[in-house]
Amino acid sequence: MRESEKKSMYIEQTPEVLENGPNKNFDYDGRVKRTGNLMTASAHIITAVIGSGVLSLAWAIAQLGWVAGPAVLLAFSFITYFTSTLLADSYRSPGPVNGSRNYTYMDVVRSHLGGVKVQLCGLAQYGNLIGVTIGYTITASISMVAVERSNCFHRHGHHVKCSISNYPYMIIFAVIQIILSQIPNFHELSWLSIVAAVMSFAYSSIGLGLSIAKVAGGGHARTSLTGVTVGVDVSGTEKVWRSFQAIGDIAFAYAYSTVLIEIQDTLKSPPPENKVMKRASLIGVSTTTIFYVLCGCIGYAAFGNKAPGNFLTGFGFYEPFWLIDFANVCIAIHLIGAYQVFAQPIFSYVEKRCNKKWPENKFISTEHAINIPVCGTWYINLFRLVWRTTYVVVTAVMAMIFPFFNDFLGLIGAASFYPLTVYFPIEMHIAQAKIPKYSFTWIWLKILSWACLIVSLVAAAGSIQGLAQDVKTYKPFKTQ
């Protein structure tokens, strides 16, 4: 990049330019006017972080026990919040007037680190996002199947098998996503994230309430300080692999760094985006940690060492069946919104690259205005319509072909957690703050980075072992 181009990247427009610009609906950089605030950013974070995995935390605590389980939860909540504040501070490029905005995680890495690290960041980020959207297609269909199975168990008894196919629900989920994917960009997703965040609170609260009721009912669930007992519940080898998987589940349950920069780019300024993002991260991570600790610990108290992988879709509870149905509907609605939070950066990346490569192509660049009664004018882009529809269809087909893709997702999460949540934020902070090599701050940041790398490797090993077990019993298009 030429020096003149570098300088032009860092120049902020003056208030006069903003006020007298060609269109009040656009920011100084030609982007749609940013309207995000603390509430919308917090909603995006909660939607991204509190996934249906919150209901599997009882299983994770059961593998680790009363001491290590809560300790690991709290440790990762601190690490996630700390590194998210470093990443938020890296949002603007170094330069005069606080530098210019960076629109994506890759842009931030390019601005602060450059070189091959930009490509490594893109590989980790977009690989993770694609994996998440496929995993959410599977998980949403499992929740809807759980509604049918719950009603079946209520009518015919708990001993009945009640086999129901996931595939019709995957198709329904895909159709909904095709429609929602026509929302042009992240800036217009706030309402969907708020709805999804409310749903996540609803089903987490239901799971928590049912666990409390089970404990209060006087059950005799067997728990221990170290979790599942070797020789009683599991073999020594199973204990090790399950502990690895549990640590991985907890670590990746907090990871939202893949979309943090994209969320921060929706914030209006002033106030400074990094200050708002830090507060939103504190709200999001604190709220998440409270729910995680309560659901995990009280769920473990309710089910003990026999805790199911997910006590709403795995039928840790059968009654009241209508409440179980409502909770699973909430999970599905939440995942509808969460899918968009993770898919929009992929959509945006491909569309920007295509616009840059073929700027004169009318199919790619032309927006067609359509007047919709009550809703007003809606802009349709044919390339956006075709590309996004194709992406949703492909992810749905992948979910149908490989219904155990959640294990692949764990592996992808293991590969992306360390670079995106820990390594890049720390390295960019060191470069931005010009921290001297081998200083006290440099040493402890590096120790934190290496410790998290070990956790990622351990979790990856657990995911690979789980994947190997699933492949052994894999039957394509099998009805559950």
Note down, in words, how this protein is organized.
- This protein is mostly helical and 480 residues long.
- It has a single domain (37-472), classed as Up-down Bundle (Amino acid/polyamine transporter I).
- It contains 16 helices and 2 strands.
- The chain has helices spanning 3-9, 15-19, 38-49, 57-89, 105-112, 116-156, 167-180, 190-216, 236-253, 257-264, 273-303, 321-357, 362-365, 382-401, 405-433, 440-472, and strands at 368-372, 376-380.
- Strands 1-2 form a two-stranded antiparallel ribbon.
- A hairpin with a 3-residue loop joins strand 1 and strand 2.
- The chain starts with a helix and ends in an 8-residue tail after the last helix.
Uncertain stretches: 1-22
How many individual β-strands?
2
Radius of gyration: 23 Å
CATH superfamily: Amino acid/polyamine transporter I
In CATH terms, what is the architecture?
A: Up-down Bundle
What features would you highlight for this structure?
Amino acid/polyamine transporter I; mainly alpha; 480 residues; 2 strands; disordered N terminus
Give the arrangement of secondary structure elements.
Blueprint: H1 3-9, H2 15-19, H3 38-49, H4 57-89, H5 105-112, H6 116-156, H7 167-180, H8 190-216, H9 236-253, H10 257-264, H11 273-303, H12 321-357, H13 362-365, E1 368-372, E2 376-380, H14 382-401, H15 405-433, H16 440-472
Antiparallel strand pairs: 1-2
